[in-house]
Every structure is written in C-alpha cells, then in structure tokens.
Amino acid sequence: MTAVLRAQGLGKKYGRRWALADCTLDIPSGHVVGLVGPNGAGKTTLLNIACGQLAPTAGTIEVLGDRPGSGPGQLAKVGFVAQDTPTYAGLTVNDHLKLGAKLNPRWDDALARDRIARLGLDPDRKAGKLSGGQRAQLALTLGIAKRPELLILDEPVAALDPLARREFLQILMEAAADQQLSVILSSHLVSDLERSCDYLIVLVDSRVQMNGEVDELLNTHHRLTGPRRDASRLPGDQHVISASHTDRQSTFIVRTTAPIHDPAWSVSRVGLEDLVLAYMSKSAEAGSRPVLEVQR
Questions:
Q1: Where is each ABC transporter domain found (predicted)?
Q2: CA within 13 Å, CB half, 64
C-alpha cells in the first residue's frame, strides 16, 4: 500500500535540544491517524515538517511521495489546520471562502458553501465574532474544500468544549469517508482519538514509542494478572511494556502474537488509553528510547 508519510531517522534540533529525534515512520494511505503524546513531545514539530513549514535537521521525509513543500503541486495535495485553528478575525466567513478559492487550485466552492450552510454559519459574520467551535469548523471547512489527499490537523479541538469537540470530529469523519482522505490528527486526548482513528502513533520526549493499526495494537497487547512474579521469568515472546506489583500479585501489560497458556495468569484486554499510558511510562523508565513499531 502507498505510504502517505515516510520518514527515516527524521530529527529537528533547536540549539542543543532535539524537538524530534530519530523518527522513523511508514504510514499507509487511507487511514485516519491519531498522533498522541504529552505536551512538548514533538507532535507539532513533526506535523510542521510534514506540511513543509519546517526543514528537518536530520534524516529524510516524504509526504505523498515527494518532499514536503517542494512545489505548488505538492502543496495543493496537503491541507493543514494548525493548533490555534487560524482564521482572520476581521474577515467574514464569506471572505474566507473567497480567499480559499483564490489560493487553492483544487478548491471546491460548492462543498465549502454547503458545509457552511449545514453548520449554520452566517456568511456575513466576521470570524472574530464566532465562537471557538465555529472558528474551528470554519478552519476545517477551508482545509476540506482545498480537496487535499492528506489533511493534517494539529490539536484542533484542544480548546473546545466536549460538545464542540464531538461535532468537529463527526464532521471530520464524514469528510474523510466522503472524500477518501488520509488524515493525521494530533491530540493528547486519547478518548477523542479512540472514537475517530484507526491508526495510532505514540510520541514521547521527541521519539516514536509505538505505531500501528489500532485493531492490531489492541489484539497483540494483553494484561496479565496473577501471583507475584519477576518479569524475567516470562516467556521470551512476551515483551513487557509495563509492570506493577503488590506483595502477592503482579500485573503486566505485554505484547505478544502467541497464545498465553499459563493457567496462573488471568488474561484481559487492554483499552487504548491504558495502552498509551503504558508506553508513556515505559518511555520514562527507559530514558525515552524507542520501544515499538507495529506495522502491517
């Protein structure tokens, strides 16, 4: 399958600090990709490199088979909604649509105006008078009407209330299905990604800790609970992601593709949020070394 984004040893350095380091990814097209990690993990840096706003310090990156920002044709294929869902406060909704039409050769004006009508936005109202949720929806409409092959969104719902977040994500999912968009959505809210994404990347302290299709990640990770046991006594094909112990009991989250036959263990599924937190904890304990890539 064609890769929508391919990075090899990608890094970005500011002075002595690496904002992104040794990032290697191969994301297949046709997915809604969730990029999750704590604040300061490097998510925005990765996305800004992917859309051509930053040049990497190290490594290579291709987006839709070409270098980000390499020319008008490549720029036309990528839509980007930044973290502050940028709009121009002094321009009306209609002004934004006219500007979008002038700047984007693949602009779909009928699509843009239909979405504005469905959202109930007054075309003559200035963006500065809109609510946060309405501005976010306007920014998303501009990104969708560009008719990109890849839509990149950097924490677009971070400042929205729960209802506005749900409405935003619902419209995003409709657009992804209708236009067969590939989407990369950054967030530190795992619950939002769980409802909308089928591919996940965990980024912690500037490094990729885990990536892969959500169903595969959930099917290959298990919680084991049983009598206290040292992790070194587990079979070699059970890779320990996190461990906790009481005086008599041990609980492990492990990655394995093999059946777990040991009758001493109670085996249960791991939810997406617990899995993400396990890798974040693993990263902290391991000094932020890369932990896992899961790809088909």
A1: 5-230
A2: 24
**Distance between first and last Cα of the chain:** 10
What ranges in 78-155 are assigned the alpha helix state H?
A: 93-103, 109-119, 132-145
Residue 229 backbone phi and psi in degrees, to 5: -155, 145
Distance CA 250, CA 230 (A): 8
Give the other-Cβ count within 10 Å of 89's Cβ.
Answer: 10
| Structural tokens at position 88 | 């121009």
Residue 283 binned pLDDT confidence (cut-offs 50, 70, 90): low
Answer whether residue 249 shows pLDDT above 50. Answer: yes
- Evaluate whether 18 touches 63 at the Cβ level (below 8 Å): no
Alpha-carbon dihedral angle through residues 219, 181, 58, 75, given to the nearest 10 degrees: 180
Is residue 136 domain-shared with residue 280, that is, in the same domain? Answer: no
Residue 29 to residue 193: CA distance in whole angstroms: 18
pLDDT, mean of residues 267-287: 82
Quick one: residue 237, left, alpha or beta (phi over 0 = left, psi -120 to 50 = alpha)? Answer: alpha
Q: Which of 5-14, 47-56, 180-189, 244-253 has the lowest mean pLDDT?
A: 180-189
Q: Using CA atoms, how far apart are residues 4 and 217, in angstroms rounded to an integer?
A: 20
Tell me the residue range of the domain where 139 lies: 3-215
Tokens encoding 98: 């006219």
Give pLDDT, residue 285. 57
In a domain, 292, yes or no: no
Pairing of the two strands 78-81 and 150-154: parallel
Is there a single domain that holds both residue 148 and residue 230?
no
How much is the average pLDDT of 10-30?
93
Asked whether the beta carbons of 147 and 110 are under 8 A apart, the reply is: no
